[in-house]
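Running this now, will post back.
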Amino acid sequence: MNRSQRARTALRWAIGLILGVFFLYLALRDVPLQEAAAVIAQAKPGWVALAFLGMALNNAAKVWRWQVLLAERRLNVSFWLGLRTILAGQMLNYILPARTGDFSRAYLVGIQGTGTVYALGTIALEKILDTLLYGLLFLVTALLFPLPGWLNNSGITLLIIVSVLAVVILFLARYSGGVLSLGVRISHKFPASLQGRIEPRLQDAVETLGVMRRGQALISLILWSLFIWFTAILPNWALLQALALPGGWLAAMTTLIFLQAVVSLPGVPGRVGIFQYACILALGLFGVSETLAFSYGVLLQAVTVLPVIVAGVVSLWGLKWQTHPQER
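Update: finished.
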């Protein structure tokens, strides 16, 4: 890492720390901590257990969906390898800037035989699917409940951008052969040494789109994605029940929308502060006091973030970070 890269990394950490402290102040300024702790202590354990189950199912479904995408290369990535790399990637995303975990996940599976570029392409497709479903969740919620203007505007803009991107992806998948031929012709304009590096990676990137042309695989992707979003909402709803808070499924969906809106902001590891403030804003729309919403945010983060960080650290142990000479 050169001096410029170190400076950018340090700047991201500094911005994240400042934002984290600022949002933590906003979340705590009117919250009696003893009262908040008492609220959390009264959470009903059965509902908390359901929230943990929802998180477990969510991560398992992410593995099964990823296996559908990786199957295009006919490489059977085991469930446990997929789960460990996903957990490790999520952990790194929580504690490091610039989506480091996504690149690490692509590398860890790529060296098993799929190729890092191909694995990264499957992760990009995951993100597009998830963002489209986030947009649909946003639309459904907005139709049922009035959201703040700033969130409405940003959500609509995001939905338009991702919808256009989805159309582009479908077009590229439909005409992938022509796209590859065009890319190869362009690569011939570069020096031979560089051309030899571009063409295999271009082939990997285009091949990623092959799953979009297989109807059964595409249906599997959509169904798994729907299940992933259902199990993302489930812990939110279960913890509302655990603390006897109002709003039901609509409040759970609104909370997820707010959390997804702030998750891209730089922050301290684990998004402490930003996470709680998003819950205060979301549940405030349903008449929940700041103390109760803060308590809910702490409990939700303990259920959905802390186990992932711990499991991600454990998952890193024993993962292969280098190929053997015969595999290169």
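DSSP finds 14 helices and no strands in the chain. More later if anyone needs it.
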